[in-house]
Every structure is written in structure tokens, then in C-alpha cells.
Amino acid sequence: MTQFRTFILALTASFGLPWLCLIVVPAVKYQALSPLPYDKEADGMDGYYPPAPINRQGQLVYAREGCAQCHTQMIRPPQIALDGWRKGWGQDQEGRPPEPVRSNELRDYHGEKFAFLGIQRSGPDLANYGWRVADRNAVHQKLFAPRSIHDWSTMPPLRHLYTVRLAQGQPSEKALKLTGKHAPKPGYEVVPTEDADALVDYLLSLKKDYPIPGRAAAMAAAAK
Amino acid sequence: MQTTPATTDTQADDLRRAAIDKSVKGPVLFLFLNGAFWLMASTILGVLAAIKQFAPEFLGACSVLQYGRLQPTHVNALVYGWGVQAALGAMLWIMARRTGQELKSGKSILFTAAIFWNIAVTLGLLGILLGQSTSMEWLEMPAFVWPVMLASFLAFAWPLARMFGRAFRPDGFMVSTWYVLGACFWFPWVFITANVALHCLPGLGAIGAGINAWYVHALILLFFAPVAIGAAYYFIPKITGQPIASAQLAKLGFWLLAVLGGWTGMQHFMGGPLPAWMVAVGAAAAVLLLIPVGVVGLNHHLTTLGKHSLVASSPTLRFVFFGSLFYPVSGVILALISNFSTGATLQFTQAWYGFQMVAVYGFFSMTLFGAIYYIVPRLSGCEWLSVRLIRNHFWFSVYGTATIVVTSLVAGVQQGADLNHPEMWDQDFSQLALNLRPYIVARALAWGLITWSNFWFLIHLMLMVAGLGRRSSAPTLLAHDHEDEALPNAAHA
């Protein structure tokens, strides 16, 4: 029986150590993590980093449709990958910025119940997607009929998030502007549901390259 | 392990074995049969998900069949529907046989637990399809199912641990029961940790993603791997009639896996927001795992040495042998996707799916098929009907799995190179989608092959469970006639 006890103890110890170090302690410490204030003098801005919690309602739609199967939300540092240099993956939409887009940090996902860092990258990274599109209708069109934008797209059309209805009187402001084979039958219009709007709100809020308090000023000083 | 030549002893042993088999018959067959149903469902979903990945309009734009919902359903059906159920069945039988103990009581509790497990998996998978997915890898099922699954698992783990405890003796070193007990012990711990952290805690942000990756690795390394290794350690000596080559190697392989298995996982998000030390530790552990993997592989190799002809004739040994071959392969793939040089290229590519499939299908499931081919005739009292069906199952599974793994890895290299190519900095994803297409088409075909093999496996298993197998005292062997005594009878006791 002592032998059995030793065996169980050894199992507990060998697994308990990584369990404590990798899961329990970081999870407890994470609860104490709080947003950092910006310094008006050094950073040139007010408020907190990260600024606001994400749109949870939209994130739930993102989760249930399994967007994370193909889209990541994580910019890797240049030592590992070229994510930061890709055109449009940061605030600068023209490309060839002097600095690569910064890689993501723990606080960027603060306030999220779960960070959808992603499983695969069959589609572009979405960490800073909010900078990439100016127009919410363009996002709706992309979600409703991805192939109306790129005919090679392998993105699933999320048509169930939209209602196709008889257009009565004035066409709705929200109606999608679709042409060609993606357009609804004449007299009909496509309008987003609440879920679709929430999802678009969420996607447009993805700007995870906030300046980090103290960091920008230090880098500017180093560059001089 | 082997029976002694004395006839009275042999008879007494046979009676004892028959009594043990009878005591676990119901639950084990129930688990295997339901597992085979889920496997069938999972492989069909695998075909559909692969097609949807390159042709999103296939079968229309119906919400239930979108790739983002189908893919997790396919993987979850494989992991929880088939994997855990088949594992529990094999664990129960191996533990009872190896410790020489009958299942004393509580059979009805086991049945209830198994039924509830299936209800939970059904509701969970429907939940994913109908839009309740949590999008946390391998935990996509809605939150309400996990306590039910946990309780069902514990209902099985408890009698297994009791059997182990009662029979534990220092002189009789039984490595297969170590692994089985380890699986009983690690699964609840890992499962509770991940579910409590991700469902009950107020929110862990990127740490949650790290815990999720850790969970997937831990489930593979500390549940699926131990069950399959335990089964291989049981069946290889049993059928070759040779003792395990080295007890030292066996112990070393076990303890190194136990020590290293819990550290790995976070390297999945290398270059990400997790603290760097967590990622580095995970990567180091994943590469170090090559040692226990190699040790176990070497031990199996030495045990099988000189008996390779049996691989041709015994269905069990054939499946177990190939399953065990996939263990080192999984270890190498894990090391490839986990270290910082090749891992950075393979990160966020199809290679990750390739690793999951080589571990859960190539290694674990193939070994478990071998176990099922051995266990079921002893429980149902009849022999497998058709050599052709077994052979069919074997070859279609081998080719299908190998295709999935190889294409996923090559696709991963291609995808990683495309993503990290400096010339691609201002390109859209059209080239990437185009380059990926042939590999995904190949995957759809491979899942088709596997579906074909599993269809016949399921039919064969259903006939066996219904007691409609061959009435014979000679086992169904692949290369020889049934009358031919290719194996010593003792090996098939």
C-alpha cells in the first residue's frame, strides 16, 4: 500500500508542478492585472491602456461562427515572422512604414473573457482589422457575400446573419449595396440582423496596436 | 504473463479470464459500439469540413454547415465521441485483466455514466452546429456539458483506480496498468482545470488562450498517449509471446512523459502575448519529449524483434504495431511544430491539424482498433467474421491517415512559407488560398477513404456485438487459414 501511495504521490508531484507554474499562478496573477494610465507629458495622450473593453456581444458571434478557425488576432514580432511588415496589418494602410507594427502583449487582450488568438491563418490576421476598413457597409458585404469582393475567397458566406426582405417604400439605409449575381431579387433588399451589426462593431473595434505607456516616448528618445 | 504448460493451471486461468471478461462485458461493448458510431460521424464530418474549406458554397450557405461550425464538430466528435469512449472501454478491460480482478459491482452505474456521456456529447455537438460554439479549441461544446462529462468519466475512473490499488504489488511491475491509471488520473485534472479556468473564472484574456493550447497538448500527451501506450505494452508482449524487452526503459518512458507532459502547450502561441518564459518552457518540453517517445518506441521495437511475421497474421498486432509506429512520428511532428525555428513557419498552418490527427488517429485510434480486434471476440463469444473486412479496414485507415498527415504537413510548410515570404508583404491571400487548395482536396479524399474503412468496421463490430460472429475456437487471422496454427494458442487466451 505504501508503494501505491508513493506512486500516486509521484504522479501528483510531477504533474502538479507544471500545473501550478503554468496555470494556477499565472491565472491568479492575471486577475490583478489592471489598465495602465497614459502619462500626458511623456505619451502625449490621456486615458488608459488598453482603452475600452471589447464588444462582447459581437465577440460571441465571432466565437459561435468559428471565425477563429481561419483568422488569427496576433501580430508576431519581426524576429519570428513578417507579420508586422504586412501591408494593412497595422494602423498605416499604405505599407512600408518605418517601423513594423508592434507585436501583441498580454494587456492588449485585457478585459476579454477569452482571447481568440486563432487556430489557423487561412485568412488575414484581424488583430488590427479596425484600421483596415473605413466603411461598415464594406464589412457587411464581405460577411454576406465574400466572393462579391474576391472571387477566389474561401470565406464562408454568413448569410444567416442577414435578412432578405421585400423592399417597401424607401429602401433601408442599412441595406447592402450588392451587384451582379450576389444581389437579391429585384424588389428585395438585404439588411443585417442585430447579430451582424454586433459582429461588425466588434470587428471594427479591433485595433490592438494601441501605444504602450512609456514605450513610444522611450523609442522616440532612442531614435534621436 | 504467459500461461504455464500444466493443463489444470491453464484451465483455471481460462476460467478466471472468462469470469473477468464476463464481468466487464456490457459496459465495454457499449462504449466500443457507441465510439464506433461517433467515429463514423466524425469521419463523414471530416469529409464535409474539408470540402467546405476550399468550396464554401458547397451544399449552400446554410448556417449549420459552415466551416467554422463543421470543423470543431468533426474534431470534437473524434475526440470525445470516439476517442475518450473507446479509451475508457479499453482501459476498463485491460485494467481488469491485468490486475486479475473482476468488476465486483456498480455495473449499472457504469452503464448510466456511459449513457450520460453520449447524451452530453450529442447535446454538445448539436450545440456547436446550432450556434452555441465557444470557439475554444477542443472545448467548443457549450459550457453546460462539461460537468456531466466529468461525472461520467469519474464513474469509470474510480473502479479502475480501486482495481489498481488492490492489486498493486512491488514485485509485479505492470507498466500497462501504470499508463492506464495515469490516464484515469490526468484526464480529470486536466479537464477540470481547463473548464474551470475558461468557463468559470471571470476572464483570462490571452492567458486563457494559452490554457486552451495547454489543454489540447495535455489531453493528447497525458490521456490519449498513455492509453495507447498502455494498450501497446499489453498487446505486443501478449501476442508475440515475448516479455517487454526492458523494464528500465518502460519505467523511464513513463516517468519522463509524466514529468514533461504537463509543461508543454503554451509554445503554440510563440511570438504571442503570453509571457516569454511560458512559451520557452513549452517549446523545451515539447522537444525533450522526444526522449520518452524514443524510449518507448525502442522498447516496442525490441519486444517485437524477430516476431515481425506475426504482424502479417494477427490483426491486433498489425494495428497495434502501426499505431506504435505513429507514436515516434507524432513526437517528431510535435518537436517540429514546437521549436522556434520550424515552429514559427508552421505556426497557424495546417500542420497543427496534422499533428492532432497523427496523434489522435494515426497513433491512438490505430492502437485502439488493435485492442478492439482482440477484446471484442473475448466478450461476445464469437470470432470476427471476415478477414477481408479487417484487411480493408486496416489498409484504408493506414493510407487515409498517412495522406492526411503528410498533406497537412506539406501544406503547413507551403502555407508558412507563403505567409512569411517577404515578396508577399503587400499581396492579398489569393495565392495562399490557391496553393492550399490541392492539399485540402487530398484531405477530403483521404477522409473519404477512412469513412469507407470505418463504415465496414462499424458493420463488423455491430454484428459482433449482436453475437452474430463466427462460432469457432480459432481466432480470425489475416494471412493464414483459420485451421492453421500460426500462433501458439496461449497467445490468444
Features:
heterodimer; A: 224 residues; mainly alpha; Cytochrome Bc1 Complex, Chain D, domain 2; two-stranded antiparallel ribbon; 7 helices; globular; B: 493 residues; Cytochrome C Oxidase, Chain A; 15 helices; disordered C terminus
Structure description:
The complex is a heterodimer of chains A (224) and B (493). With 224 residues, chain A is mainly α. Chain A has a domain at 44-147 and 194-223: Cytochrome Bc1 Complex, Chain D, domain 2 (Orthogonal Bundle). Chain A is 34% helix and 6% strand. Chain A contains 7 helices and 4 strands, in the order H-E-H-E-H-H-H-E-E-H-H. Chain A has helices spanning 2-31, 40-43, 56-64, 129-132, 136-144, 194-204, 215-223, and strands at 36-37, 48-49, 162-166, 188-192. In chain A, helix 3 crosses helix 6 (194-204). In chain B, 75% of the residues lie in helices and 0% in strands. In chain B, helix 1 (7-54) packs antiparallel against helix 2 and helix 14 (387-419) packs antiparallel against helix 15 (430-465). Chain B has a single domain (7-492), classed as Up-down Bundle (Cytochrome C Oxidase, Chain A), CATH 1.20.210.10. Chain B is mainly alpha-helical. Chain B starts with 6 loop residues before the first helix and ends in a 28-residue tail after the last helix. Chain B has helices spanning 7-54, 67-99, 107-132, 145-167, 175-200, 205-240, 247-261, 276-288, 290-304, 309-313, 315-338, 342-346, 351-380, 387-419, 430-465. Chain B is globular. The interface between A and B is large, with 73 and 91 residues.
